[in-house]
DNA sequence: ATCCCTCTAGAAGGAACGTTCTATCATGGC
DNA sequence: GCCATGATAGAACGTTCCTTCTAGAGGGAT
């Protein structure tokens, strides 16, 4: 694997576990196996640049993953519950590690690191756009689809926080159940009968 | 105001803006007006102890606030939309500051600071418990009420993150709309007619 | 063989970190 | 007046922080 890839991957992991401020360059060097000098060689902007890239890459990865997971089911409603159930399974089996560095970092640095906030903004916008198209294809109106995707992403990110704090799958399962019900109701009114 | 109160208040504000790791004792001293020595006099456990107290206090404050806001409307469904609309208004007028230190800090330190994670766990549990009772009184079954409250809190916390990242009220308004619809559907099946 | 360029490697620098420490101040009881 | 006590005040300590810098290793091209 290329060195800059190793660095980015290690940074993603560290961001998920402890956020941006608590992650040190020294720690990143140890975790990635690359010495400090190499990090600054590959990333001119230092720590911030590494985090920037990590956010972009994991944002893109989650976009693919989410589309894949949602499309795995014929029934969109089952898809929602499936995604949350999968997330609940994964988060427990990884020892309640955070599943999404984007949410963690944005919550922490939105007021302090404009560049990282902007990068996260773009990532989220890409999720919303792709998700809206997906649910339009399922039969929802444009505005309904967009609202639902916002609620979906917000519910997912929020449930990650709650599940990690409580070390319980319940927040994810509960949020999935409610959002699945919500989607069912929206679909019922959109294409009655 | 008592000194330890000034310290706690300042810490709450700093936690909301930049999280736990990025907040320094020196910065806390300047923000609160209390010198470093006084902070350690009032909080034996240092920085962690101050954050612990700040989480507990703002957790209790939000519990009161949420109950107050939800009870302001006769119609529970209107209450949901009202809470999210209020939050959207507030978050914009404060320059997209975070509204809830609990979510920010938990996302950041859950894996690294067991004591703070446990404190946040208790805060969230108190919200879920109170919220569940509230919606049981509205007519939902126990399990439905509990699931809905999890989805509500997760949606709020997640929408805070999205709104801050995008500097837009849309995530909050959209999540509120969807969750209000969800509650309406749950109420309709619970007490038909 | 020599030059050049990319990358590795980690020491050095200067600031900021959390914590501890001592010294001083204010106040209430005797 | 005098001591005890709780609070204030910030200097000092050792560590860690992010970044910069110098030195060298590796590999093509001339």
TrEMBL record, chains A, B:
Keyword Transcription carried by entry: yes
Checking Pfam families in the record gives: TetR_C_13_2, TetR_N
Q: What PROSITE patterns does the annotation carry?
A: HTH_TETR_2
Q: Which UniProt keywords apply?
A: DNA-binding, Transcription, Transcription regulation
Q: What is this protein called?
A: TetR/AcrR family transcriptional regulator
| Origin: domain of life | Bacteria
Using the record's annotation, list all stretches that form the HTH tetR-type domain.
1-61
Q: Annotated DNA-binding ranges? A: 24-43
Return the InterPro entries for the record.
Answer: Homeodomain-like_sf, HTH_TetR, Tet_transcr_reg_TetR-rel_C_sf, YxaF_TetR_C
Gene3D superfamilies the record matches: Tetracycline Repressor, domain 2
